[in-house]
Structures are given as C-alpha cells and as structure tokens.
Amino acid sequence: MALSGLVYAQKTEKETDFALAFNDYCASLTDSLYTYGTAWGQAFGNAYESNSFSQLTVHSNKIYSFIEKSQKDLIKRKVNPDMEDLKVAVLDFLAFEKAMIQEAFKPFEQFTDKTSDETIKAQLDLLTSKTAQEEKVLTAVRAEQEKVAKLYDFTMEAYDGE
Q1: Is residue 107 classed as helix, strand or coil in its secondary structure?
Q2: 158 found inside a domain
Q3: DSSP-assigned letter for residue 115
Q4: Cβ–Cβ < 8 Å for 118, 124
C-alpha cells in the first residue's frame, strides 16, 4: 500500500539535538540582549532624573561588545543548510541591535544638564521608533526558530511577550 507518494525524512536524535542546541544558542543571544537592554533602561531612568547621561556609556558599551562578539561567533558557527535561515535571521537581528545602539542609545551619552528638553525628546522619539521596529526583526527570528523546531520535531517554549 503506497502512502500517497510522500516521503518523510526521519531526523536522527543526533540531528535533533544539534538543531535544538543551535536554537537554544540563538535564544540565549536574544535573552541576553533583553537583559542588557533592561539594565540600560534602568540606568536611563536614573540618568534622566539626574541629568547625568554619561553613566549610560558602560551599559551601551557592554551591549555593543556583546553584539560584536556574538556576530563573530555566529558567523563562524557551522549549521546544517536547513538552519541557515535561522542563522541569517539572528545575524539580521544582531545587526539591527548594533545599529540601534549607535543611533538610539549612544547619542544620550553626550547629553548634559544643559541639553534642551527638545533635544532629549527628539532622541527619545527616535529610541521609541527603533524599539517598535525591533519587534518586527525579532518576529522574523521567532518564525525561523519555529520552522527549525517543526523540521526537527522539537517543541518551542511559549513566548511570553518580553
């Protein structure tokens, strides 16, 4: 009896473990950036209240260094051809985050107590705009993670919206 002409390639346990490990690695990168971003946001609240924006430098530099190291590591990382789209999606996400640091985070560090409210508001508006765009890039990563999970038959943890 023919099974409708479809051929299903069964993935080995080793292949599934490899895919799951790569997915977990990608998730760890986005989770780490979320943690770093949260710390920057808390520091920003303090900086905004005190007009001491230079304290943000240590946080943005830490994020930027993490992104650069992650990009280099991910570029070197070997993956199966069917995981390449996930790798590219994460690299795109990292590139977006790197540009966001340069364009939306770093300019605050130059502000002083003499910086006008209009200048601060304009930079906040840019930051808000970039943050809104970030979700689109992150959604692309999640979509690729779901494809890999389906292909390798493992379950993704539910995304909790953070």
Answers
A1: helix
A2: no
A3: S
A4: no
Number of domains in the chain: 1
pLDDT in tens, 6-61: 434 456 778 888 999 999 999 999 999 999 999 999 999 999 999 999 999 999 99
pTM equals 0.87
Q: Would you say 65 and 81 are in contact if contact means Cβ atoms under 8 Å apart? A: no
Give the count of alpha carbons within 13 A of 28, CB side only. 9
* Alpha-carbon span 124 to 34, nearest angstrom: 19
Please enumerate in sequence order all residues whose Cβ is within 8 A of that of 102, keeping only pairs 6 or more positions apart, or say none.
Answer: 64
Range of the domain at 133: 13-152
CB atoms within 10 A of CB 58: 13
Question: Which residues fall within 8 angstroms of residue 36, CB to CB, at 6 or more apart?
Answer: 59, 62, 63, 66
Q: Is residue 26 part of a domain?
A: yes
Amino acid at 134: E
Backbone angles phi, psi at 8, to 5 degrees: -110, 125
Whether residue 72 contacts residue 121, with contact meaning beta carbons closer than 8 Å, is answered with no
Q: Which of 39, 1, 22 is nearest to 86 (CA)?
A: 22
